[in-house]
Amino acid sequence: MRLELSLIDYLIMIIYFVFVIGIGWFLKKYMKNANAFLEAGRSMPAWVAGLAFISTNLGALEVMGMSGSGMKYGMLTAHFFWVGAIPAMIFLAIFMMPFYYGSKARSVPEFLKLRYDEKTRALNAFLFATMTILASGISMYALAILMENVLGWDFNMSLWISALIVLCYTYLGGLSSAIYNEVLQFFIIVIGLLPLVVLSLQDIGGWSGLKDSLATIATAKGYAPDVYTTTWKHAGDAVANPMGTAWYGILFGLGFVLSFGYWCTNFLIVQRAFAAENVNAARKVPLIGAIPKMFIPFLIIVPGVIALALFNDPSKHFTLPLDASGNPIYDYTIIMLLKQYLPAGVLGLGITALLASFMSGMAGNVSAFNTVWTYDIYGSYIRKPTGNEEADGKHYLHVGRIATVAGVLLSIAAAYIASKFGNIMDFLQTIFSMINAPLFAVIFLGMFWKRTTGHAAFSGLLIGFLSALLHHGLTAPAGATTMVKGGWITILHTYPVEMAQNFWTAIIACSIATIVTVAITLVTKQKRTEAELKGLVYSLTPKLEEEDVPWYQRPSGLAVIVGVIFVILTIMFW
Amino acid sequence: MVDIRIPIGLMFSIFGVIVTGYGLFTISDSEMYVKSLGTNVNIIMGLIMLAFGLVMLYLAKRKKKA
Fold first, then answer.
1. Are residues A477 and A416 in the same domain?
2. Predicted ipTM?
3. Is the domain of A85 the same as that of A17?
4. Cα–Cα distance between A319 and A312 in angstroms, integer?
5. Is B22 on the interface with A (CB under 8 A)?
6. Does A478 map to a domain?
7. Which of A138, A400, A554, B43 is most buried, with most CB under 10 Å away?
8. How close B42 gets to chain A, by Cα (Å)?
9. CATH number assigned to the domain comprising residue A224
């Protein structure tokens, strides 16, 4: 399964490295204070921040994992990009962004501090900081191991080099550099993977040829012939589709709880919108990001679906490495397709696209980590602002830079731990991913119900998180052999597939957080005055004035366009 | 601050030239392009990238004038 690269492929990669570092170097002179370094001076045009918004999310694990899921579950995987993303992105843009951006909070934890209190902020800040380091360590490990197995690169070398390049440009140019590079990386990912989609589709005989090949495979497994090329048609019953999830699980678990939890509260993502130049630009950021988001399935899921057909057709000679129990390792789908179809030259572009996706994801983690560390942890517990704006700006810039270096080093450490104790890292990541669902409940109640109190929010977050943990400890997916997948207390319930367990963990966490927050609000007293809550709560904030621009350039007009494309795609691939 | 379209335009123009050039250089190597179903993908992708790079540079230049 070795893949040989030529000189031209390395040349392309090196030019790409020169440009990403060059962008950081060029932006260095603008980094005069913490505001420029950690918040990009709130100066980004909507389209730049919008592409960065989607690019951060398009990390290496996303590209590798989602094409792998395409091979496993077929077009059903597109739910993660359509119903599992678009409604939440529209909601964030239209309803939540005015309070996020208008509050002048520099991070999601800081919003919690402004709306609720210090302890709610602290809880979120510490959990979030740990989660970002884990996430970037795990994706770094995944990339390095892939490069070692397929390209024969030394594990340590690819780990350190890729991390140091990210460190270089985020250290030099801060969030601006991360955002600018994410835009560049977005275009590389699209252009680098484009020939793969066209060639593999041509090879399998176009969409209709693909449908025919998959029909045989689906029938042999006992599914309806078109199960791999449709999204909702066979979601009536959990056993009728390979994802093992029925429509209500997809709609509420993925489309509501997981997706709103991720898109509306994850600071890694939301930070890109915070960097926009004004409130209307900030509202347009998720909507501009939503347009490419809807088409990414054609770039990374469709090749995965094609890989399933190729894998079952001996005449195509398409192989995937197998794990110890003889199952294909799905994460290798995209790189094995690159090997199958791309000759030297475009192959270099394809590999560069994978590296770019890794860097955009990691830079996102690092730039979110350094902001939360500097403002929410260092700035509130170690050294509070002195009031001298200029001196503070310089001091926190320095702290932000050190946090950037520390964040990268900690990620590297996490990557090494993942290489030695993979299960422990998977387990920790599963646990920390449980912070989002209760967080959405708490932020949503805070924005739309002025009565919600700080004690209630803190308890909601904590109890929501603990109940997710408890659910994970008491249930397991069928056939799970390790404790990592759940059931580490005792197994009370078994889910048919892991995905169903994830959905239910999130649903339970979000519901319990909501109930606890509402209940405690009703028995505690609101300490914040209405004046303090102005700009943070819907009913106490004056309505935004619409800009004087054509309807399609307004957030509401864009939201309609995004909504219409979403509906058309859903119907086309029903 | 700098217009991001400039570095994007520059990088893709360079990629375009290199990859198209490589495609022309290997134009008679039919064995190399068996993988890509007989298509010289380097020439095609090279020209796409060159066009994209030049459009980006043009857009950046037009904005600077305005």
1. no
2. 0.96
3. yes
4. 9
5. yes
6. yes
7. A400
8. 6
9. 1.20.1730.10
Q: Are A154 and A148 in contact (CB under 8 A)?
A: yes
**Buried b / exposed e along B40-53 (16+ C-beta atoms within 10 A):** bbbbbbbebbbebb
> Residue A292 domain-assigned?
yes
Please give the residue range of the domain that contains residue A123: 7-420+543-572
B24 at A interface, C-beta within 8 A: no
Residues A523 and A560 reside in one and the same domain:
no
Whether A456 has its CB under 8 Å from any CB of chain B: the answer is no
Does residue A101 sit in the same domain as residue A186? Answer: yes
Shared domain check, A549 and A532? no
Give the three-state DSSP class for A237: coil
* Set of chain A residues whose Cβ sits within 8 Å of the Cβ of B44: 195
Predicted TM-score (pTM) of the model is: 0.93
- Indicate if the alpha-carbon torsion angle A43, A45, A51, A54 is positive or negative: positive
Would you say A228 and A214 are in contact if contact means Cβ atoms under 8 Å apart? Answer: yes
How many other β-carbons are positioned within 10 Å of the β-carbon of residue A509? 31
Give A279-293 pLDDT, tens digit per residue.
999 999 999 999 999
**Tens-digit pLDDT profile for residues A448-504:** 999 999 999 999 999 999 999 999 888 888 877 667 778 888 888 888 777 778 888
Q: Are residues A436 and A465 in the same domain?
A: yes
Q: Does A382 lie in the same domain as A252? A: yes
* Residue partners of A510: CB distance under 8 A and separation at least 6: A257, A261, A437, A438, A440, A441, A464
